[in-house]
């Protein structure tokens, strides 16, 4: 019985979209990691609570199949601020990139700034 559960979870992982812009914050990547850790032995893994496993699979399958989005449609595609989902996505990805640059640290920033090759530095006009 655990072999069929394992195959169902694998199929769900294949169907679940992956967002490369989110890097370590992606739900699809997290789901794949959790399935890999839960089914370490693959089809031979013994499940301690099969009912809970089935409930978890059904919940994830409903989310992946947009069950709740279809059941509870949105009136407008904006939030209370009036910003669309695409605008929020652009804003968030820009902020994540900025935070990644901020995490570099002082030493790396200084090394990047002072290790420029002569071709990168603009030439000065000759003096008279």
Automatic annotation (TrEMBL):
Compartments where located: Mitochondrion matrix, Mitochondrion nucleoid
Domain of life according to the entry: Eukaryota
Cleavable signal peptide: none
Protein's UniProt keywords contain Mitochondrion: yes
GO cellular component: mitochondrial nucleoid
A GO BP entry: mitochondrial respiratory chain complex III assembly
Record bears the keyword Transit peptide: yes
Keywords noted in UniProt: Mitochondrion, Mitochondrion nucleoid, Transit peptide
This protein's name: Mitochondrial nucleoid factor 1
């Amino acid at each position: 019985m655990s072999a069929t559960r394992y195959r169902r979870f694998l199929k769900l992982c294949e169907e679940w979209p992956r967002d490369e812009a989110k890097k370590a914050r992606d739900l699809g990547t997290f789901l794949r990691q959790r399935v890999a850790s839960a089914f370490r032995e693959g089809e031979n893994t013994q499940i301690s609570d099969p009912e809970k496993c089935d409930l978890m699979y059904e919940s994830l399958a409903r989310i992946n199949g947009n069950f709740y989005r279809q059941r509870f449609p949105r009136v407008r595609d904006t939030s209370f601020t009036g910003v669309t989902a695409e605008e929020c996505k652009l804003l968030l990805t820009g902020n994540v990139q900025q935070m990644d640059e901020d995490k570099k640290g002082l030493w790396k920033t200084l090394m990047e700034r002072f290790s420029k090759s002569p071709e990168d530095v603009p030439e000065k006009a000759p003096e008279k």
